[in-house]
Amino acid sequence: MTKAVITAASRGFYVCQVCEQLSQRVSEVAHYCVRCGANLHFRKPQSLQRTVALLVAATILYAPANLLPIMRTTSVGYDQDDTILSGIVTLWSGPSWPLAILVFFVSIIVPSFKLISLSLLVISTHRGGKWRLQERAALYRAIDFIGRWSMLDVFVVSLLVSLVQLRGVASIHAGFGAPAFASVVVLTMYAAQSFDPRLMWDRA
Ligand SMILES: [Zn+2]
């Protein structure tokens, strides 16, 4: 036998996504926040579809972000293209190995973790059911927490560029991998934002 669960949404309550003001839906018209005027929804509109679209775009761009050179170093009569991985290998073999670990973490581990875990959340939410709901909620909180540090990836890569620049008479230019990598960061950030974790509980 299933128990009827009383939720805020079933009682007509919703929270503003911008200022978190609690409102109650009293009529079928005008759903705007009384405090900030934002449009109110019980759930983020087309949450799963938007998240999937952003994830697909991010996954496609993940390949050029890692395969194309992220920077081109030009010194006297000598050009060198570096991808994220080859940059990490260069850093690892020198005295800046702690930076190699940091770059590896924020530019390889973090984006992969976000892509894989968001895909897992979208698929499991789409299928519905109670499978590991608590763990899935915790996973979403982890992604949300990492999201605040998203720009760290871009920051570290720019730090990498300035470090190489300092090393000698060389000029650095961003390669095609750089905009692809920045796009992956921005797209996964928006994907995490457009996912509504309450859908997991709705569909359970
Ligand atoms: Zn509001």
Put the structure in a nutshell.
The chain is mainly α and 204 residues long.
What attributes does this structure have?
Butyryl-CoA Dehydrogenase, subunit A, domain 3, binds zinc ion, 204 residues, mainly alpha, elongated, 2 domains, two-stranded antiparallel ribbon, 3-stranded antiparallel beta sheet, 7 helices
Written account of the structure:
The protein has 204 residues and is mainly alpha-helical. The chain folds into two domains: 42 residues, no CATH class; 158 residues, Butyryl-CoA Dehydrogenase, subunit A, domain 3. Helices cover 58% and strands 10% of the residues. It is built from seven helices and five strands, in the order ββαββααααβαα. The strands form two sheets. The protein has a three-stranded antiparallel sheet with strand order 4-3-5. Helix 1 packs antiparallel against helix 6, helix 2 packs antiparallel against helix 3 and helix 3 packs across helix 4. The chain is elongated. It starts with 12 loop residues before the first strand and ends with a helix. The mean pLDDT is 85. The protein binds zinc ion. Zinc ion (ZN) binds next to loops. The site of zinc ion has 8 residues, from loops.
